[in-house]
Each structure stands twice: as C-alpha cells, then as structure tokens.
Amino acid sequence: DADVTQTPRNRITKTGKRIMLECSQTKGHDRMYWYRQDPGLGLRLIYYSFDVKDINKGEISDGYSVSRQAQAKFSLSLESAIPNQTALYFCATSAHKQETQYFGPGTRLLVL
Amino acid sequence: QKEVEQDPGPLSVPEGAIVSLNCTYSNSAFQYFMWYRQYSRKGPELLMYTYSSGNKEDGRFTAQVDKSSKYISLFIRDSQPSDSATYLCASGYSTLTFGKGTMLLVSP
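YS: structure for the whole thing
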C-alpha cells in the first residue's frame, strides 16, 4: 500500500463549488504539506502543518483552507472554486525536524 | 526573482550520455538541498539529499552543491531512457522551495 494517499485522484467541479481534497499517510510523520503544481510555475506551497495543532500559510494560501484532523490526515478545501485553481495538487509528509519530503500521487483538479 | 531558479529545458540526450542539471538559489539561509524526479502523471520522488557543499554519489547519480556560488547540480552518468522525467531541485531550511523543474529526454 502507498505510504501517502490522496483522494480523489481526479475531480471536475464548477466555479463557486466547495471542494475538499484529502490526504492520508501511514509513514508516522508529524509534518504534512499541500502544494499545487502548474505548468511553467513548478511546485508552490499552499499550507503546511508541523503537528496536529500547528497550521501555517505557505506561498499561495489565498482561496484555500486546511484542516489537520489527526497526525495522519490533512485536508485541503477550496471554499468557492475558481478556474485558476485548476492544477495538480500534491500532499507531502516529512518526519519531525527532517526536511526530506515524501509526496502522494496527486489530485488533478479541473474547475470549469 | 524566485528563490530557486532552474532551466525548464527540455534537455534531449542520447542514451549513455552524461547529463548535467543545474539550479541556482538566492537565499543564504538555505541549508538543505534535494533533487526529486517526477515521471509524467506521478508525484515527485526523492532522488538525492545533501546539506553540505561538495559531492554526494549514489550509483549513477551525483549531487553537487557549491554554497559559495549558490549553485546546485545533478549529474547522471550512462543515462538511460528510463531516466526520462522532470527533475526538480529544492532547497530550504524549514520548508522547501522548489525550482520549476527540467524535463529530460533520453533517446535510445
């Protein structure tokens, strides 16, 4: 089984809809991250969490929110989706005080 | 200016060639340097990790960091078609900043 799983893997939604992307990990890592990847722009950090009670904004947090439900679960929400949020979204994890991050398979999101 | 700069390519080489992939970074506080490989429609996977200037070797791959010039390199010896992927450099000190990635194509 994969160490970092993301659901759904693909999603098509309409402008204005609320959508949640979920990430689960079995690696036992404390730290979790959400990135988006766009052609020509690379990976950009949206939010990160170093433990269950810690939430931090990344480079591009506007329009997104997160919830760290447990050590193993970190969800990303788009409260009112817009077309320029169409992207590939990745969750990643790392161990406490370790910088090496391990990525999930990604969620491909299309906002119409 | 993005904190980590990387030429997007694509870089096309014949099988067996030595490949050199490069990045520069601007933040002197960055302490960790990594290379990730990403196949099409997959998540990035960690390839190499170092935190000091100098070389680190793992099989056909060598990561090189020069902190004085803020330069990060990845060398691939005897490149194979299976090395065709996008290579992402990353650097940071508590979170990582990624380059945009270089697409590598190794032809048989």
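YS: worth flagging: The longest strand of chain B covers residues 85-92.
IM: good catch. Also Residues 86 and 103 of chain B are 4 Å apart (CA to CA).
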